[in-house]
Every structure is written in C-alpha cells, then in structure tokens.
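Anyone up for a design puzzle?
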C-alpha cells in the first residue's frame, strides 16, 4: 500500500501502518520537511533552551546596515531600506533581554532564548513550514551532561510531549491508570465505570 506523505497522519492512522509503510512514510515526510526547510531564507537549529538562526547577508555588510528587531513574540531581520529577509510572529515567546544578534563574515546570527525551556519549536515563524518535533533527537552529549535526576526529568518531559502530540496518555496519566487498575483488581466489588482523574 502506498502511503500519501503529503498529508500528516493521525497517531491512530500511523499506528495501523506496517513497519515498511511506516519507514516509507517517515522517509517521505522527512524529505518533504527537508525541502521546505531548505527553501527558507535562513537555517536554524534548537535545543530545549534556545533557538539559533543563521541568515546569509552580503559579505562586507556592517551591523549598522542591518535592521534587526527582536521582540517577545516577533522577529524581523534584513538590510536597511530593503524588504526584510524574515519577518513575522515567533512560534513561542522568547526572553528578549537574553536574546542577541551578531554579524560574522556575511552571516547574521540570531540567538533566541526560549521562555518555555521544556518544549521543542515546530518552526521559527508561525507562517513557515513546521518540522515534526516527535522526530527530534536531542544531542546525547547534552543529555548525558545532566545529573541523573535532571536527565530523568528531561527524558520524561520529552516522552510526555511526544505522547501528547500523538494523542496518547502521558507517563503520569499512564501511572494513574495502572494504579486504578490495580485497585480495581484488589476491590472487584467496587464500580469504577465513572472514575475520572483530576
């Protein structure tokens, strides 16, 4: 069965795919995503804490010839007197005081500090193509640099975010469901059909 990678599948649809179809779908989605990202007028990468954007500008340009505006939810960058190279609403809020820009040999480097440092961004500007954040592989060196407790917390948050995006229960919701199940087994005389978690 050929899978149409032009449309995003729901978690249920994806789960129904065979291993081969999943691989083909993931590969096609990745190629589409790579092509969309390559067509942007900048490149970007992120960690859970920050987003770094690189914009190519003509070599020899001085900082004073640039127009860069960094606001809590907006970003604008380009050459003075010309249409902006990028402009629009940011995917999420940033810490303006901790965000900076520098010019380095024909590259405008924009560094944004995220307000929510527990979430991957789908895109830089909301009107630009999204990436699949469930496929992000954080740099292992960074994760392994954390102490055991922090690392476990970050891994749990990453798992929970992926589960939420796929419409599946988070680790806490799963734990509560398991506790309820055990309690039901120990107390078969009680009716839990209307039990709700808060």
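Challenge accepted. My sequence:
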């Amino acid at each position: 069965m050929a899978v149409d990678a032009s449309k995003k599948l729901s978690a249920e649809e994806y789960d129904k795919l065979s291993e081969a179809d999943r691989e083909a779908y993931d590969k096609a989605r990745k190629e589409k995503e790579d092509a969309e990202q390559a067509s942007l007028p900048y490149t970007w990468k992120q960690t859970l804490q920050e987003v770094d954007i690189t914009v190519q500008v003509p070599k020899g340009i001085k900082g004073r010839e640039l127009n860069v505006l960094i606001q809590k939810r907006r970003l604008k960058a380009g050459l003075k007197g010309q249409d902006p190279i990028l402009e629009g609403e940011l995917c999420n809020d940033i810490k303006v005081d901790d965000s900076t820009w520098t010019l380095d040999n024909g590259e405008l480097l924009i560094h944004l500090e995220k307000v929510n440092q527990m979430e991957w961004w789908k895109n830089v500007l909301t009107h630009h193509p999204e990436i699949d954040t469930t496929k992000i592989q954080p740099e292992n060196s960074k994760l392994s640099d954390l102490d055991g407790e922090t690392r476990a917390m970050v891994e749990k948050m990453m798992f929970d975010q992926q589960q939420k995006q796929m419409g599946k229960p988070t680790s806490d919701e799963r734990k509560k469901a398991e506790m309820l199940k055990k309690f039901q087994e120990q107390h078969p005389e009680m009716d839990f059909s209307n039990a709700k978690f808060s």
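A detail worth pointing out: The chain is about 35% helix and 25% strand.
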